[in-house]
Amino acid sequence: MKMELFKKTAIIGVGLMGGSLGMALRNRRLTEKVTGIFRNEEKIKAAQRLGAVDAGTTEFKEGLRGAELVVIGTPVGTSIKVIEEIIPFLEPGCIITDLGSTKLELTEAAERLLPPDIYFVGGHPMTGSEESGVEAANPYLLENAIYVLTAGENTNPGALQAVKLMVEEIGAQSLIMDPEEHDLVVAAVSHLPHLTAVTLVNTIPDIGVDINKALVLAAGGFRDTTRVAMSSPHMWKDICLSNRKMIFKTLKLFKKKIEELEKILNEQNQSRIIGELEKAREIRVSIPKRTRGLLPGIYDLVVLVGDVPGVIGKMATLFGNAGINIKDIEILKNREEEGGSIRFSFSSLEERDRAFKLLGDEGFQVNIR
């Protein structure tokens, strides 16, 4: 039986991340009650039906009454305003954390605004989805994710430990960082890649070729490389503006790398080209495989199948009967009368592993990718 960490948890903004955290807390019985605070009544019913919250309200006063943990799940551009508005309703000893992608501005604001008996611990679960809203919430979304907690000189050690324990009890892996260090790292490994993906996609219409032909060829690696460009533009507008200083730093470094690449291509310097490719390959191989990162997590299986009618439908039915949700399906190779390979993608490691066992038990030749 799990240990109850908080009597009442209030989540302000029950979307993808807030809803997933609420589900995880409730499923693991880490809090006696989860109350969601919403902008409108319609979202309350949806969140309750999906199991993200026990109760909901549109009023801060009601939702925050008796809350020992307050989670800010609103877009990063509104987080400081939320703190300003909730201060009158917070109880002494309350811990505030958040789920946003940037930390320095919010941490400085929290230290400036909050009374000494209210504690702030910055939080950033480094996982996500191209989808948004509580309807896309998943109790396993945070499982195996790196969950950064930011701590500065003024962070209360007891509050930090309480949030760290909560993070680990929901199955995530805690990592404590300085807020400024966090923002620089996420600019490099999340925000810059996102803007790069956006730029790559927006370059296609300008290359002077029929865009429909280009998109047909983009259906493979290009599609995978740029899938983060499908994320919410409004959410990313807030992220880019709140972390603009660190993004500028990484953009400057990136532009320098592009200029170096232009130079070695212009010189046809084969050894330098190979050197750059090998360096990238070595760093890429060293990225941990068993944890989720900042970019939305996808867990793949590849199934070798013969040229048998209905084989995809059979596997999909097996998954459906077992309650396993398929994130994506792709036919990797298919030759007439020979069959081919089919890739199934899942949003959680738990679903992927269940699917692997299920297909293996049914006699399919399946590999984890």
Fill in the keyword field for this structure:
four-stranded antiparallel beta sheet, 19% strand, eight-stranded mixed beta sheet, 14 helices, VC0802-like, alpha/beta, Rossmann fold, 6-phosphogluconate dehydrogenase C-terminal fold, 369 residues
Task: Give your account of this protein's structure.
The protein is α/β, with parallel strands linked by helices and 369 residues long. The protein has three domains: 6-178, Rossmann fold (3-Layer(aba) Sandwich), CATH 3.40.50; 182-285, Orthogonal Bundle (6-phosphogluconate dehydrogenase C-terminal fold), CATH 1.10.3660; 299-368, VC0802-like (2-Layer Sandwich). It has 14 helices and twelve strands. It has helices spanning 16-27, 41-50, 60-64, 79-86, 104-113, 157-169, 179-203, 211-217, 221-225, 233-242, 244-266, 270-285, 311-321, 349-361; strands spanning 6-12, 31-37, 55-57, 69-72, 95-98, 119-125, 146-150, 173-177, 299-305, 328-335, 339-346, 365-368. An eight-stranded mixed sheet has the order 3-2-1-4-5-6-7-8, with helices on both faces. α7 crosses α11 (244-266). The two termini are 34 Å apart. Mean pLDDT is 88; it is low at 333-339.
